[in-house]
Amino acid sequence: MQTIDDSLFQVSVDENGAKVDHLISVTDNYDYLGEEGTKEGTAIAFPVINHDNDWASKMPWTVVDKGDTRVSLTLIDTPESYKKFPYHFEVMTTYALEGNQVEITFFLKNSSHKEMPFSLGFVLPNNWPTEEGINKISLNNGKHEIDVASTDFKLNVEEDHVTAFIDEIKLEAESSKTFALNLTLK
Asked: Could you say which DSSP state residue 16 is in?
């Protein structure tokens, strides 16, 4: 478990799946992801948003950079993943605290000599009332609020979670791209 914090928030990131397990307000010790035992944590989906080919949530990630207010984890293809998804790739996810925001960036590199199709998703558990706007979803339980915003991801409210996803697109051979998502905590 990796923990980053500043004067406002503490974020705990699990190396298994690079998911956020705790998102705690330092001022009132409130965990935005729920109380212990009832929380789900976030989830990352890659290379395909389905349970059979979603290595991001099943494989251990490697911590490649760590500071007080940021942590970067990477997932690199393996011989096992290559059998089902025949591409060489690297996904690096960085969680960084900036004021009252958690900035989440996804750096995706296609190391193959061919174009790589993929989907990328981020799931945030939610049982709060929501309000949808352009490139933003606001979650508000009356006492705490989270704004999920991105111009890279399509945002969607599901029954018990918010998804930020990029449907199947293709990344050129030997190229990379960065995608960003912001959580503003109030």
From this structure: B
